[in-house]
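Whiteboard transcription, Tuesday session. T.W. wrote the structure tokens on the left side:
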């Protein structure tokens, strides 16, 4: 659906690796939303990527499967406000198919509207990308991040945790060879 909105019927030639495809998708939506008839911000600033990363950061921090609509709205508009006088980035991300909106039941038997990334594998790869970049920015060698004292160990600490984080593990398994030339299993001597 996302490629179709961009006028493509298949992934353009020359794209290698899932990371390139996801970056292409995000950048294309960013270009469209930057137009004057949409949100009117400089297309060189990837507002969509910034908003998606901030939403992923909130999801990781809160340890939830979705973000309340109100929180997501604030996060998205906090990004947009720095680059445009217009508002409504969250609704545009939903309209473009980056995010989905749904109703979620809460433990107190009430419900709330929430948003999540529209494609589960897409979310897994964006989350892996976000986590990898944060480890690199923290100055910890990426190869050490999966060891017991590492920042990413809690995603792979045992077989049960690996099953829970299966999609994220698959994303790490694809992205780590692209980035550091090592397979994930090489970084997990404890399993």
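and on the right, the sequence the group agreed on:
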């Amino acid at each position: 659906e996302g490629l179709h909105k961009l006028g493509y019927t298949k992934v353009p030639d020359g794209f290698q690796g899932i990371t390139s495809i996801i970056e292409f998708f995000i950048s294309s939506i960013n270009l469209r939303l930057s137009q004057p008839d949409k949100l009117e911000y400089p297309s060189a600033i990837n507002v969509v990527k910034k908003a998606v990363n901030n939403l992923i950061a909130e999801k990781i921090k809160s340890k939830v499967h979705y973000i309340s609509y109100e929180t997501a709205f604030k996060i998205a508009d906090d990004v947009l406000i720095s680059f445009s006088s217009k508002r409504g980035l969250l609704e545009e991300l939903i309209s473009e198919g980056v995010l989905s909106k749904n109703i979620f039941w809460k433990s107190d038997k009430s419900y709330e509207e929430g948003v999540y990334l529209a494609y589960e594998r897409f979310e897994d790869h964006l989350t892996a990308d976000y986590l990898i970049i944060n480890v690199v920015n923290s100055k910890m060698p990426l190869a050490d991040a999966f060891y017991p004292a590492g920042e990413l160990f809690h995603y792979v600490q045992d077989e049960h945790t690996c099953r829970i984080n299966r999609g994220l593990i698959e994303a790490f398994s694809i992205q780590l060879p692209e980035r550091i030339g090592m397979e994930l299993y090489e970084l997990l001597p404890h399993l």
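Someone added at the bottom: The two ends are 38 Å apart (CA to CA).
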